[in-house]
Design a protein that fits this description.
Blueprint (H helix, E strand, L loop, with lengths): L1 H20 L7 E5 L41 H9 L5 E2 H9 L10 E3 L20 H13 L5 H6 L1 E5 L2 H7 L10 H21 L4 E5 L23 H24 L4 E5 L1 H10 L8 E5 L1 E2 L15 E2 L6 E3 L7 H13 L5 E2 L3 H6 L2 H4 L3
Helix pairs in contact: 2-10, 4-7, 7-8
């Protein structure tokens, strides 16, 4: 009798584990942003010169370049794996496959619209042929309005947003002086983000995650800017970043008030990364200053993979993979903090809790 009871208990426990594994109520992820999220859209854009579709990008995980601006996976990839769905294709790849007949429909696990080099200000890096947030949103809107994406799928999906680093970095470029003061410039950025939120809500988004910018003033590429310090972070830049991040968190707090049925979270990526920089050894880093792959001061004067670049032997020990972007190890740690971390890194709830919320609570159809 004891043996039968034990078997029943084990079966019950296994059933609970299986239910936990498959309990997430998120069938798809839709991602918008810049190079932190770009999974290869720029690679499929022949008019775009901001590219990472050459070695050694992708070398640590995919073992080939994928258009991601790191040595492996990015945050959207890790979150997909935590939820248990396939990695999302770049929108331009999915569109090409439908146009050439190799696929009949857009993927049901979501789409990645992010474009490296883009910003929330439409003019940011326009000369590089990147796709700003407004155009990314338009691409998504067309698919929803043409019923190429199921509207009930949209309501159950997770929406990830991260953009603004390029806008703020470009503010400090010497050859194109900004017309606005730092405060008004940040406000102009936040106005664009507020418009993005309103529009994705109208299109059916109900689970919305806005991620803060990391400490942009600490990227190795600051060595390219005249007058920027290289022995410490560029505080003027980080002050703008923090002001933008504060505004972003305020927008997140307003979402449930302005948009009934929506649940929003703020990912405090800045604070997460600053913790890595403060106690690097705890997180497996031996270098939180220089790029693993690049050349010149801080490894920040040349893009990884360009002629004459140098590469470190252990990318996982570096916070930065190239002159602008984190290593896969950094992305993995950030993703874990966003997925199951505490209030310090993501609030008011983490992504795991957001993914577990049932449709009935959110008023989804």
């Amino acid at each position: 009798m004891k043996r039968v009871f034990l078997i029943l208990l084990i079966c019950s426990s296994l059933s609970s584990i299986v239910n936990l594994v498959s309990a997430y109520n998120v069938p798809a992820i839709f991602t918008f942003g810049d190079s932190i999220f770009d999974a290869g859209n720029n690679h499929f854009n022949n008019n775009c010169t901001a590219q990472a579709d050459f070695p050694p990008y992708g070398s640590s995980f995919f073992h080939r370049p994928t258009g991601r601006f790191t040595n492996g996976r990015i945050v959207a990839d890790f979150i997909s794996q935590f939820i248990g769905i396939d990695l999302q294709k770049p929108y331009l790849q999915a569109r090409l496959e439908i146009l050439n007949g190799s696929q009949r429909d857009y993927p049901s696990n979501g789409i990645n619209f992010a474009s490296a080099g883009s910003g929330v200000i439409p003019e940011t890096n326009h000369d590089l042929g990147v796709t700003p947030i407004q155009e990314q949103l338009q691409q998504f809107q067309v698919l929803v309005e043409q019923n190429q994406i199921n509207k009930s799928l949209v309501q159950k999906s997770l929406f990830l947003f991260e953009s603004g680093s390029n806008d703020i970095f470009n503010y400090f470029l010497p050859f194109d002086p900004p017309k606005l003061n730092p405060k008004d410039y940040v406000q102009a950025m936040l106005t664009e983000v507020a418009s993005y939120i309103d529009q994705i809500y109208k299109l059916g988004a109900r689970r919305i995650a806005l991620f803060s910018l990391g400490p942009v003033g600490c990227v190795p590429a600051r060595a390219l800017l005249p007058g920027a310090p290289v022995d410490r972070c560029y505080e003027k830049m980080n002050v703008m970043v923090q002001n933008y991040n504060n505004g972003l968190e305020s927008l997140v707090k307003d979402i449930p008030i302005k948009h009934p049925g929506a649940v929003a979270v703020f990912g405090a990526v800045y604070d997460i990364v600053q913790r890595f920089r403060t106690i690097p050894i705890r997180y497996g880093f031996s270098d939180v200053t220089n790029a693993c792959c690049g050349d010149g001061t801080l490894g920040g004067l040349m893009q990884c993979g360009k002629e004459g670049y140098k590469m470190c032997p252990n990318p996982n020990a570096f916070l930065f993979w190239d002159y602008f972007h984190p290593s896969e190890h950094t992305y993995k740690l950030i993703s874990k903090a966003l997925w199951a971390g505490k209030n310090f890194g993501i609030r008011p709830i983490n992504l795991k809790t957001l993914a577990n919320i049932t449709s009935s609570i959110m008023g989804e159809g």
